[in-house]
Design a protein that fits this description.
Elements (H helix, E strand, L loop, with lengths): L1 E4 L4 H10 L6 E4 L17 E4 L7 H9 L4 E4 L9 H6 L4 E2 L6 H17 L1 H9 L17 E5 L3 H12 L3 E5 L5 H6 L2 E2 L2 H7 L2 E4 L13 H6 L4 E5 L8 H10 L2 E6 L21 H6 L5 E3 L8 H21 L8
Parallel strand pairs: 1-2, 1-3, 3-4, 4-5, 6-7, 6-9, 7-8, 9-10, 10-11, 11-12
Bound molecules: 1,4-dihydronicotinamide adenine dinucleotide.
């Protein structure tokens, strides 16, 4: 099929070209994000391929429909950026990549935790300055600590297993407990209990109206002093201003973010010449006990190849008989 591929980076092209070696599809790569304006770039394509920071609101969906687009192929697991009710109304099917490598994201969450706890980011900078002191670098053993996992689907389960491997006590909260996690030794508790008892809290649930600002002033008040929070899921799970206050008081001891509430305008792009315009994010970057990465949890070779192969397979299936593989909604 003819595919309009938005928001394309060199690494996307590399993996999609590899997955499309048989030339089954004709892909036109656009560097621009998908939005109302950029839909004008579509000529005779039938499929739009979009990423998490593309705009798929009702206005864009109506425009895509009018341009003859038959399928929206998301090259992501998350779909909270799509107006699903509208896509249904327009009979414009949306497919996604439900799983590509839960290990990629879970390992990144573990990486943030280890780096923060032992101050590896600070030690790296310090040694480059010729400072070999251990000042303020004391961490804590993860062994024996209580780790709270919110959302134990594919990624949360992989993260829980890593933490169990470190000798942590793992407690979890999920609206649907995972039997495999229970069998591995994960203890399901209420969210309140998890907040009040965990030394480390890692978020792995999707962004929904129920989980929006799951970590807010009230939740933070319930937590242990010096709690470590890791968010590799979605930025809007955390009320950033509330967490900045909690960092100032020491309520939050360590914070690892791979996602940020207002990341759409910033992440995946280079602002090193312009500087950060977002004052809230800029404030976050001033804390020595905060590490922010630019939504790179998914970014491993294995995950990228899986994303490309599954996206093209979703499109091939639709081309073959109109059926929807890995549909959303
Ligand atoms: P999944 O669908 O396998 O698991 C999500 C789990 O969250 C399910 O067990 C579900 O029951 C649970 N859940 C739903 N509502 C909940 C609630 N209100 N409270 C607690 N748990 C709830 O999804 P998967 O693959 O594990 O991904 C999890 C999240 O990770 C995605 O929603 C996405 O936001 C994020 N993600 C981040 C990436 C990154 O690069 N940083 C890449 C891929 C996904």
């Amino acid at each position: 099929m003819k595919i309009a591929f938005y928001n394309s980076k060199q690494y996307d092209q590399e993996f999609f070209e590899r997955a499309n070696q048989n030339g089954a599809h004709q892909i036109r790569y656009f560097s621009s994000h998908l939005n109302l304006e950029s839909t004008s770039q579509i000529s005779d394509e039938q499929v739009v391929c979009a990423f998490i920071n593309d705009n798929l609101d009702a206005a864009v969906l109506h425009s895509l429909k009018a341009k003859g687009i038959k399928l929206i192929a998301l090259r992501s697991a998350g779909f909270n950026h799509v107006d699903i009710a509208c896509s249904k109304q327009l009979a414009l099917p949306v497919v996604r990549v439900p799983a590509y490598s839960p290990y990629a994201v879970a390992e990144h969450a573990a990486g943030l935790l280890l780096c923060l706890n032992r101050g590896i980011h600070r030690a790296h900078n310090r040694i480059r300055e010729g400072d070999f002191s251990l000042r303020n670098l004391m961490g804590f053993d993860l062994h024996g600590k209580t780790v709270g996992v919110v959302g134990t689907g594919k990624i949360g389960q992989a993260f829980a297993n890593i933490m169990l491997g470190f000798g942590c006590k793992v407690m979890a909260y999920d609206v649907v407990p995972n039997e495999q996690c229970i069998a591995s030794g994960v203890n399901y508790v209420t969210l309140e209990h998890l907040f009040s008892q965990a030394d480390v809290i890692s978020l792995h649930c999707p962004l929904t109206p129920e989980t929006h600002h799951l970590i807010n002033h009230k939740a933070l008040e319930k937590m242990r002093d010096g709690v470590t929070i890791i968010n590799t899921s979605r930025g809007k799970l955390v009320d950033t201003k509330a967490i900045i206050n909690a960092l100032k008081t020491g309520k939050v001891g360590l914070l690892g973010l791979d996602v940020y509430e207002e990341e759409e305008a910033l992440f995946f792009e280079d602002f090193s010449e312009k500087g950060i315009q977002d004052d809230v994010l800029a404030r976050l970057t001033t804390f020595p006990n905060v590490i922010i990465t630019s939504h790179q949890g998914f970014f491993t070779q294995e995950a990228m190849l899986n994303i490309a192969q599954t996206t093209l397979s979703n499109i091939s299936q639709f081309e073959l008989d109109g059926s929807i593989q890995n549909g959303v909604g």
